[in-house]
Amino acid sequence: MSFKYFPLLLGLTFITGCDEKGGGSTTTTASPPVPVRVTAVEKRELFDETVAIGTLRSQESVDVSSNVTDRVESLHFDDGQEVKKGQLLAQLASDEETAAIKMVDAELAEERREVARLEVLAERDAIAGVTLDERRTRSEIAIASLARMQAMLDDRRIVAPFDGIVGLRRISPGAMAEPGTIITTIDQIDPMKLDFQVPEVFLTELSAGTKLQANSAAFDGETFAATVSTIDTRIDPVTRSVTVRALIPNSEKRLRPGMLLTVKLKRNQRTTLVIPERAVVSVGSNQSVYLLNDGIVNLVEIKLGSRIPGYVEITDGLVEGRQIVTDGVLSLEDGAKVTVAGSFEGVTPAFDPTATPTF
User: Fold this and answer.
1) Which domain holds residue 239?
2) Which pTM value belongs to this model?
3) What pairs with residue 221 in β-bridges?
4) CA distance 113 to 252
């Protein structure tokens, strides 16, 4: 046999082999069902959340200082001590005022005795009435002088103006205190005031008694309950925001003035349909999901509402209880056959950059 016919024979052999296998090169095989995971459309309690940044303030707060210039004789508190209203905090030198009070007190006693003696004489018409009036005036002057000296003495006794907790001591015994010299601070921190600002459009959502939630970076993951107490009467014309004041119980004295808190305001609470966000398929400008019907999926257009981590609200296009595809949507088309390989296992946890990687 000549070698020039050898390629032709090989081609005939290849065609014959294909025919013996039933014409596989010309017959189309149906695609197998696509394995997917599904979940049911369900109803949940949803709300719109507004987040604001607030600053904690004391219920009452004051810098304790002296009204006069004098030497600090003694201090009667420790750093961080709880004190009661009227409790002595600091005593300034008061020897001169004490001595002056004794002198004026003695003068007043003398004037009162003289007034009593003249009153007896006046009843007998033994003295002129003007003489008695002069003594009474001098007695009243002595009373005023005594009150003045007592006020000067009280200025040298520095007391707590209200119940609270004193801060750090800023002065030592023997130092010279002057008006404006801070001796310590006092804060009343139960409850605490939380001031924050919200846009004016939320005014209708807020009123005295509205419940809020607040979080602090100092207490990771802990939520503090707050209640709106007052809304400012004025709106900032530049930012168009209003200042809101809420109260936070602080019986354990953990929160401190000046702390920064994140405030969460829940609005428009409602019961609505919710599906996993990963089930949504974008088709142009429309949003759709694959609805399961007896092993076949149909692409159904839906309307979306609010979003929460991992889930989305459905405002139109679905009813409660229907099965939709959550995993495997990229391999589907309208009318495709599927097989249910499992149920939706939950959303993927948010990335935590501090977590230890696993391999």
Assistant:
1) 50-60+188-269
2) 0.62
3) none
4) 59
